Amino acid sequence: MDRYQLIDLNTVRLNFTFPSLSAFYTYMNTPTPTPTPTPAPTPPPEVCGNGVCGSGEGYSSCPKDCPAVCGNGACESPDETAQNCLTDCHCGNGVCEANMSEAYSSCKVDCPPVCGNDVCESPDEDNSNCASDCRCGNGVCEANRSETYSSCKVDCPAVCGNGACESPDEGYGSCPADCSAPATPAPVMSGTLVGDVTFDKESYSAGDAVVAGINVQNTGNVDITSETVTINAMVTRLDDWRANRALDSMSESEKSQTFTMDFTQTISSGTTGTVSARFQTQKNKETSIGSISLSGDYTVSLAVSIGGISIGSKQVSLTLH
After folding, report:
1. Tens of pLDDT, residues 147-165
2. What are the Cα distances from residue 239, in Å, to 144, 178, 208?
3. What pLDDT digit, counting tens, does each position of 245-278 carry?
4. Hey, which CATH number is domain 191-320, 2.40.50.1020, 2.60.40.10, 3.40.640.10, 3.40.50.970?
5. How far is 55 from 43, CA to CA, in rounded Å?
6. Beta carbons within 10 angstroms of residue 299's beta carbon
7. Distance between start and end Cα atoms, the chain
8. Regarding predicted confidence, which is higher, 109 or 38?
9. Got the DSSP string for 108-176?
10. In this predicted structure, what is the pLDDT of residue 20?
11. Nearest CA to 188 among 304, 312, 309, 313?
């Protein structure tokens, strides 16, 4: 069946078939969806130099697009001056116009200094040529003229007890009544190793006790009272040719011996102290090929920590004869 039927030129009958009366009511009560409006296009960004003075542009930001306009109430310098646009640029017309916010500070050429106006117009005025305006330097601290230590130190010297810490002439050490004590810094323990490792003798034999000295500099703000030195001595060559051949098949741990020593030496903040670590070398070692001498060359590493904090290590060569 057709959906519509022409009755006459002014009337069209619509024919719909619904499976039930409830379907008809649902159709009749379903609102017509509102079409989503199309968003307005985003205007292109303003570009200085395109010949158009946009809403966000002006003479100061883009003179190419927004040239100076005489008569707009703004003195657009350097294109406008009192000579070519007196309407906008009043400074320079020879008249001190207070209603245009002209004053000595803003337009010295129109508003020269005037002694007696209660304003010290420096640098043209000072205490020597206009003491009535420039009071600073007359030896009297005139609070009614807003003279203070900060504005006129020569007339208003620092006064301990006035409740103001007048630095740099006052400090906590010279005037604790006005100046607070400096904040106490948080304790920091730190240090570094300086210089070379030193030994107590020029040469050693296998079996000797070796004393190695290492310099610790305290770079923190608290005393160092606990040091730990870990020494690792690793053989790199032995005089005994039989044992020296066996070194090639040994691991670094098998060729090394480690000593750990704790100290309670006090090293004050900002000073350097030498920690002397003593370790005993071995003269001979029993092996499957018999007793061998441990004289030879060694690499000795000294790692240092303070208060449980590692601060570095030093490495040095040592020969045992």
Report:
1. 889 888 888 999 999 999 9
2. 94, 75, 16
3. 888 888 888 889 999 999 999 999 999 999 999 9
4. 2.60.40.10
5. 12
6. 15
7. 121
8. 109
9. TTTS---TTSS---TTT--TTT-TTT--TTSS---GGGT--TTT-TTTS---TTSS---TTT--TTT-T
10. 63
11. 309
- Find tokens 């060729």 and name the residue: 255
Integer angstrom CA distances of residue 71 from 84, 96, 101, 272, 313: 11, 20, 17, 75, 77
User: 206 is written with which tokens?
Assistant: 């296998």
What are the residue boundaries of the structural domains of the chain, listed by start?
113-182, 191-320
pTM of the model: 0.47
> Of 297, 300, 319, which is closest to residue 243 (Cα–Cα)?
297
CA atoms lying within 13 Å on the CB side of residue 90: 16
The DSSP line for 28-96 is HHSPPPPPPPPPPPPPPPP-TTSS---TT--TTT-TTTS---TTSS---TTT--TTT-TTT--TTSS--
DSSP structural state of residue 247: G
Can you give the length of the chain in residues? 321
- Sorted by sequence, the CB contacts under 8 Å of residue 152 that are 6+ apart come out as 135, 136, 137, 141
